[in-house]
Amino acid sequence: MTLRVPKLKGAVFESAVIERYRRREQSVEEALIDMYLAGVSTRQVDDISRLLWGERMPSQTLSDKLKRVYEDIDQWRNRPLAAHSYPYLFVDGVWHKRTWGGSVENVSVLVAIGVDDTGHREVVGVAEGMKEDKASWEQFVRSMIERGLRGVRLVVGDRCAGLVSTVNSMLPDARYQRCMVHFMRNVLSKVSHKHAAWAASALKAVFAMESRQAALEKAEQVATEMWSPRG
Question: What Pfam families does UniProt report for this protein, alphabetically (predicted)?
């Protein structure tokens, strides 16, 4: 069958239908890649692609797209940091479950969030597969320093001895502050369920004070109430 396509002089014909289909196809591919990165097995990705397309996504197509994704991630993780100073640095180790070779294992991810002079927050460091020991923290902090991390005055984290030691040795101009969230968790783990709500409220009241002196006075008040007989 021969179709005659109407044409306008000086204009190029573009099919809106094909463009819509191309965008839809790209969205489906991106969704399949997200599922794979989230831990969905290759077989499940194949099953879903068959359901959506009627055929499986070619393995080479998936491989090529994942390669580009990993390249973008590596470029972001290794980007220079010298353009800004980060007076405040929040660091922590987060544990996630990862599927690898058909088995599920726990993997630690070290994360650092920097706050610049304007108050803007951004993730400045991410390292996977490390332990929360001194050697891992040293390697993590060293990588950020080599990328240009500067101007750190305060580091906030948990009570990990390896982290505290690393900050003292590698960021000597910075002070270390224990994370309030971790501190509250540690305290509440020692409080009976009956008094947990009161203890949490009391601690939050101390942290809400706007000056050091007011916080110390509030802490004394809380301590006095804590030792008083409670029902």
Answer: Transposase_mut (PF00872)
